[in-house]
Amino acid sequence: MIIKALLILSLSLMLNAEELITPELIDRAQKKYDNFAKNRFVYIRDELLQKIKDKPDLIKLNFVNTKYNKIKYASDKKTYNKNDYWATLYEFVGKNRGDCEDYVIAKYYTLKELGVDPHKMKFLYVIYKTKRGEKQSHMVLAYLKTATPKSRDDYLILDNNNYLVLPASKRPNLIKIIHMINGDTGAKSKKWKQLEIDMKRKKL
Amino acid sequence: MTLFKQMAITISLIITLLLSSVMVINYKESQKYIEDELYKNTVNSLSVLSNKLSQNGGEKAYIQSIIDSEFDSGYYKSIMYSSNDGNWTYGQEYGDLFKGVPNWFMYFVNATPQVLSRDVSSGWNILGKIYMQADPSTLYMALYKIFTDLVYLFIISIILSIIIFSIAIKIILKPLIEMQKQADAIAHNEFIIQKSIPKTVEFRDVVLAMNSMVKKVKFMFDNANRQLAEQKKQDYTDSVTKLKSREYLIDKLPHYLKPDAEKSGGINIIISFSGIIEANKELGRREVDKLYMDISNIFRDATKEFDDTIIARMNGTEFDIFIPHCSIDNVLDKIQWIQIRSIETIKEYNLDKNDAYLSFGIYEYQHTQTIGELFSMADNTLQKAKSYPSHIYYQEFDNSQEIKGKDKWRELLNKSIEEASFSFITNDVIDTKTNEQLDSVLNIVMNTQDKQYIHEEFMPIAIELGLSAKIYSQAISILSEDKEIEFSAHINTLRLPSDYLTSKSAYGEIKQLCMKFSSEEKQTLVLEISDTFIRKNPALVKIYKELLDKHNIAIGIFEFIGESENYMYLQEINPDYIKTDASFLLSQTPQELLALETLTKTLDISLIATGVTDEKTAKKLRSIDIYKMQGSYMSLSH
Predict the structure, then answer these.
(1) Residue B231: which of B592, B516, B480, B536 has the closest Cα?
(2) CA distance B115 to chain A (A)
(3) pLDDT digits (tens, 9 = 90+) for B152-203
(4) Cβ of A125 and B135 within 8 Å?
């Protein structure tokens, strides 16, 4: 009996270590931020990751995009006093604000947790044209509908500026793709390595 | 420092130097290579990036996005863009660089990649300049990795090299260790022949030379040993009775007849055999010799219970029985027993007891007497004995004054022992060839309220009263503990009497004394033990020898007259010197002296003549090549 209990406990601990949101993280978030932060993480764990885990990718994309887009936009300078910083999902949710890269990172890891194939997701450096016609450097998360995309129709865009997940062809304000990088599935840059380290230790 | 240690240190230093040099060169080359590679990569990246920027006509959003994507996708310290007019700049930069490399390493390496720049142009128009600096963490981490790997390799190489060289040196120098053992043995006068001859030519020659030298010295020693033993046996033994000879008694008497003799007095019996000429005529020489043998055995039987008894045949008809530390009461019945037994024996040879008989002249000698006085008294008592009907005459020593004095002495000595009121004076041992002082002989002095008594004044009575061991015990404790005693810069020597050496406290006290002297660099000590004690107490002497060796304290031998049948014990004891009475040396034949000289020189032992009291004796000693002397004359003349 004791051995069985120990085995279950060990297995449970191992599984917990793999989980995106852990009770320990929730406690830390509450201590570092507030109850609202705690509630946001509890929501992600109990609602976001539970409700749609068996749904098709498109539903997952929309649901995740909508939920994370509710978090307020703020520049890295304002949030972290740095020109450019890739925040972890935990920092982003904990602080309840972030810039376009932070949305992309949070959506990427959440979708991955929900079972979306990471090879299908790309980080896109794009030129975004505002309603006032101003061109901005911007980042969005792209979901590849096919393994070998050939046109803008083959990309679904998850953008913090848009609650709808639309094909790139329906996003005329994304006027140019500057660069496209893989998530954690390809060659890793210095920033990616640092992000992975921070994600692993659940940096809040 | 041993040769092995010296070689090990030298080789270790060479290996360390070589490996360090290799490590430094390797490291420098690696650093140069990595820096070159980093430079090339940065140049390549800069080229690609400037091309990308050129294609977008200098629009800020494009420039930002391109720089961001490039920066996020690669390994850079910074990428900066500055417009041509200087009004707009944009860039990305890492503040905290990296982890995993210690600060001290970065401080010493200081390998900052260059900031490279390139113009960004669109057609004929130069839009701005792009600056790029590669991520130094790549450089530092690579260098640190190389550095740690080299350090590990260095440590492992050093350890392995030292182990391999140690084994190699040990194998190469193994013969040298054997040679060292042999050299040590030679230094300690041991004759060891090395059987395993090294194969290394230089070592082999040395070992063969040493073996040859040891063989020669051993041969000389054995020869001298045998010669001296044989000559002494011949000189000191009467061929008929196997008793000691007159020469032996004369050589031995100085040890008993001197102011600081261990025994203050005893009994001397001179025995004359009358009627021998007639007996020779009646029985013949051979039968008389047998008779002598039987009579000698009676002497032996009668005196076997007394220690240190000397029974000597003085001439054809006279014998002497010398019994130190003995009173008349203890010997009178023995003499009567000898007389009865001799009469019976003479009867057995069918001789008339009125014609053939023994006469006994007995008297108590004192240690202060001279040999001449002793023999004079012997003649007197024997003449009287011959004229007495009983043929026994006892010359009583008037010791009434002495008995009275003994009580006072006992009181005085006990008080001095109790109060530890002893100090030391020194006599010199002089090398008369160079007129240099060799040793300072420490003599105990007793300090009382009224007077200071020198060794010769109080020691004989102390010996007689059985207090000498206690006095030495106190004196040695004073030597060990009193820091105010000023020792000579020469070798200090101290004579240890037999009574003291056999006392219970002696070992511990001598150990303390040895420890004191072994801790002093400038002062040396030699402890003297009598030749008789060494030969009669080999087990105890071995214990003392081990103790003294442990503290590098040498042994000296005194009262040597060469009466042993084998002198190998000298090799075992390995004394610094042998002290023998001047009269003994002067009575030796040239052959005996030569044997003694060879024996001592092969063992590197000095020969010192003691009891040198006048210039005449000193001159005689010098004439037989004895130059090291001790005695009252030396103290006066030096």
Answers:
(1) B592
(2) 18
(3) 988 898 888 888 888 888 888 788 888 888 888 877 777 778 888 888 788 8
(4) no
All residues of chain B having their beta carbon less than 8 Å from the beta carbon of residue A189 are 72-75
Q: Do A178 and B60 touch (CB under 8 A)?
A: no
Q: In a 10 Å sphere around its CB, with 0-12 CB exposed, 13-18 middle and 19+ buried, how is residue B455 labelled?
A: buried
Q: How many C-alpha atoms does B379 have within 13 Å on its Cβ side?
A: 5
Which string of b and e fits B129-141 if b means at least 16 CB within 10 Å? bbbbbbbbbbbbb
What are the chain A neighbours of B134 within 8 Å (beta carbons)?
A: none
pLDDT band at B98 (very low <50, low <70, confident <90, very high): low
Which residue type occupies B172? I
Q: Token pair 């977008």 is at which residue?
A: B56
Q: Are A138 and B60 a contacting pair at CB < 8 A?
A: no
- Strands A162-167, A155-159: pairing kind: antiparallel
pLDDT of residue B448: 84
| Dmax (CA) of chain B | 163
Phi, psi (deg, nearest 5) at residue B465: -85, 5
What pLDDT does residue B483 have?
A: 67
Strand partners, B442: B426, B494
Residue B636 pLDDT exceeds 80: no
Which residues, at least 6 apart from B335, have a Cβ–Cβ distance to it below 8 Å? B269, B302, B360, B362, B392
Query: Does position B452 have pLDDT exceeding 80, yes or no?
Result: yes
Q: List b or e across A98-135, with b for residues whose CB sees 16 or more CB atoms inside 10 angstroms.
A: bbbbbbbbbbbbbbbbbebeeebbbbbbbbbbeeeeeb
A137/B62 touch (CB, cutoff 8 Å), yes or no: yes
> Which residue shows structure tokens 């000595």?
B413
Report the amino acid identity of residue B636. Answer: L
φ, ψ of residue B492 to 5 degrees: the values are -90, 135
Contact B93 A83 (CB under 8 A): yes
Position of tokens 């391999």?
Answer: B164
| φ and ψ of B514, to 5 deg | -60, -40
What is the Cα–Cα distance from B94 to A85, expressed in whole angstroms?
A: 10
Residues with Cβ within 8 Å of residue A133, at least 6 apart in sequence: none
Minimal CA separation from A36 to chain B, in Å? 31
The 10s digit of each residue's pLDDT in B383-419 is: 888 888 888 888 776 555 555 567 888 888 888 888 8
Cβ count within 10 A of residue B514: 21
Strands B357-366 and B392-395: parallel
Q: For the residues of B151-172, what is the DSSP string, one character each?
A: HHHHHHHHHHHHHHHHHHHHHH
Nearest to B531 by CA among B480, B492, B584: B584
Which chain B residues are within 8 Å of A190, Cβ to Cβ? 74-76, 94, 135, 137
**Contact between A73 and A98 (Cβ < 8 Å):** yes
Which H or E run contains B136? helix B136-187
Output B637 or A31, whichever has higher pLDDT.
A31
Give A124→chain B minimum CA distance, Å: 9
Task: List pLDDT tens digits, range B468-508.
Answer: 888 998 888 888 887 667 776 778 889 898 888 988 889 99
Question: Can you tell me the distance from the alpha carbon of B554 to that of B539, in angstroms, rounded to the nearest whole number?
Answer: 18
Token pair recorded at residue B35: 């820096």
* Residue B521 Cα distances to A183, B440, B524, angstroms: 81, 17, 8
Q: Cα–Cα distance between B133 and B71 in angstroms, integer?
A: 11
